[in-house]
Amino acid sequence: MDEVQAGSSPDADESRDPEPERGGLRRFLRRMASSKAELEAEDLQKTSDEEGATPITACSERKRHCVAGTLRTVTLRPRGGAPALEAELYDGTDVINLVWLGRRRIAGIDPGRRLRAEGLVSVQDGRKVMFNPRYELRGNS
User: What pLDDT does 41 receive?
Assistant: First the structure.
């Protein structure tokens, strides 16, 4: 027969803390109940925060901001008769259009690519836009 010290139960394990288990279970249940889009948005927000980027929802008009996220779409849309490459960047909170004037194509600017961009934010037709932003390509999503 095993000896048990007074004041402790035989099932108690001193080295295990029940709090991390409950947190892990809570996280698991939340992930199971969430949709794929919600989980992807949460992951994007987390990586954007780690890169020191401003959430797109917090970007105000006529101010310089640094944003990071994944390119959803990349299209060629002429503006005023000149070529313009337009990309939609999503960071899990909102979308911003990145527009490079006078460009038909930029190597590495493709849908699904992670990107960090910095520039002046403006609003056109109710959408946030950044013209000719400085950018850094990141790994694929």
Answer: 73
